[in-house]
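User: Structure tokens for this complex, please. No commentary.
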Amino acid sequence: MTKSYAVQDGSASIDVLGDVSLHVEPSRLVCVAGRSGSGKSTLLNIATGFLEPDRGVVHWEDVSVRELNADQRARFRVRLFGIVFQTGALIRSLTAIENVAIPGLPHGLSRDSWTRAVACLELAGVSHRSRHFPTSLSVGEAHRVALARALYRDPPILVLDEPTASLDGQSADSVVELLRGLRTSGKALLVASHDGRVIECADTLVRLD
Ligand code: ADP
Ligand code: MG
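Assistant:
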């Protein structure tokens, strides 16, 4: 697929993605690597259907994303993906555990959804912060809470934008361990990162520069 952005006055466009192609599957980690500005986030946004490529197609299972209307796209996305954007986007008025259990809200926050949220926080290594509000979490902790939320629905595909970027060495190592564990448990992982530790454990490496 390819993607260009128009610059603001419309006089030109910048090519962000050249011809790039990738495929995610269960128990595999695809790492999209490249310097800052090389188009990693753009590629993840295209893969998750938030952006349209200029050329090329995105298939979710056997369905072309272009053929889906907004509702269908949203429903597919919720079923297929757990997504952690670069900026973790926690809701400030909710505690960590409430943020994680948000996907359970339409069904009421039952004991089950609470238990599940605790399990996800434990998996992400941040259960000791479950009652904290986002403003009292470190950047790294907030990122882990966002990761726990992505795990909450047990989606088959995890899409993570620079999951180790805001973490110290030891925390980054434990996130990489978590990614390995998720892969072993059968998840498909699509990870944007220029971190050597993530690149090293990738099954497929897509270099953008
Ligand atoms: P990365 O995640 O690798 O740092 P991005 O995908 O965020 O790269 O951005 C790739 C390039 O596209 C950058 O030069 C960025 O400035 C530009 N870009 C990103 N989003 C937009 C946008 N909405 N409009 C115009 N240019 C954009
Ligand atoms: Mg980015």
